[in-house]
Write a structure and sequence with these properties.
With 298 residues, the protein is an alpha+beta fold. Helix content is 42%, strand content 14%.
Length: 298
């Protein structure tokens, strides 16, 4: 290099030996010219290790930032171990271990978070599609009922509305049910309640659109059972049918990744769903409805 060359990082003339650096993603004619001082002292990109004029907020140069994924919680490039929560990520190991989890999806919280009225904390990803108002929830619920009728042939004779409640209100509703000991209020996102001729579905507010749709559809399945199979006590069939309704509904809305996650569950919900899908494969949708009625009478 000649003495008339200037450093691309500090802008000062380069005297003596400098460095000519090339990023693997740059065209052949493009290069970074730096003086020996900048080469020694400037911060380095975590990925390509090239010097940068200023520290980057994510530790990555502008070129690498275009294609390298960073941890969604801290913004840094993850190490060898990367994590996903419900197919969302990546998250680095430190954030998975040290950061508080989102109360909705359990992913590590970033500095961008939302405090809900009942004390729950929601991450930016959940908040981006969260349903907070009754009008939004009811519109989604009404559309879901139309899909359930057209797709599965299930509808309700007794009006059953949907209400948004916070976590504390939902816990109070759960405690009033005879089967309250079987439910964990901290893990329960929705519930179908039947009291005399009154029916209702209660779902936590602040849930992402997909989650609210899935929970509402599951509880709608229980509402159908309440009218058509009131003495159904087989837990796997009971929960499996409700999961099947939710599975079919979210599939209609093209939430296929969530469908795959539902099938991977190994608890009573996952096993019940696989049972319902097996019946559907052999006997069709009407066969699943008929099987619920048959088990109810046996």
């Amino acid at each position: 290099m000649t003495s008339t060359s200037f450093c691309h990082l500090c802008g000062q003339p380069i005297s003596g030996r400098g460095k000519l650096l090339h990023h693997s993603r740059w065209p052949p004619e493009r290069a970074l010219r730096v003086c020996s001082n900048c080469y020694r002292t400037k911060p380095r990109c975590q990925v390509c290790k090239m010097p940068m004029a200023f520290p980057a907020s994510k530790g990555v140069c502008a070129t690498c930032a275009e294609y390298v994924q960073v941890c969604l919680a801290c913004g840094q490039v993850p190490g060898r171990k990367q994590y996903q929560v419900d197919d969302v990520g990546p998250y680095c190991e430190n954030c998975m271990r040290q950061r508080l989890p989102c109360d909705v999806c359990s992913a590590p919280l970033s500095d961008e978070r939302w405090l809900l009225s009942d004390g729950r904390i929601s991450c930016a990803h959940c908040h981006s599609t969260a349903i907070y108002t009754p009008n939004e929830a009811i519109a989604l619920y009404d559309g879901m009922k139309i899909v359930a009728d057209r797709l599965l042939g299930i509808n309700l004779n007794i009006p059953t509305g949907l209400a948004l409640v916070d976590q504390n209100q939902l816990a109070d509703i759960i405690h009033q049910q005879s089967y309250a000991e079987t439910l964990d209020p901290r893990q329960t996102l929705g519930i179908y309640v039947r009291k005399g001729m009154r029916r209702g579905i209660y779902v936590q507010n602040g849930l992402p659109r997909l989650v609210l749709l899935q929970v509402a559809a599951h509880e709608y399945g229980h509402a159908w059972q309440g009218e058509n199979c009131p003495f159904l006590h087989n837990l796997m069939v009971c929960e499996g049918f409700a999961e099947w309704v939710a599975y079919k509904i979210i599939g209609y809305y093209h939430f296929n990744r969530q469908q795959k996650r539902m099938k991977k569950r190994t608890d009573i919900y996952g096993k019940g769903l696989l049972w319902a899908l097996k019946v559907e494969a052999a006997q069709g949708i009407s066969g699943v409805l008929s099987e619920c009625r048959t088990v109810c009478k046996s």
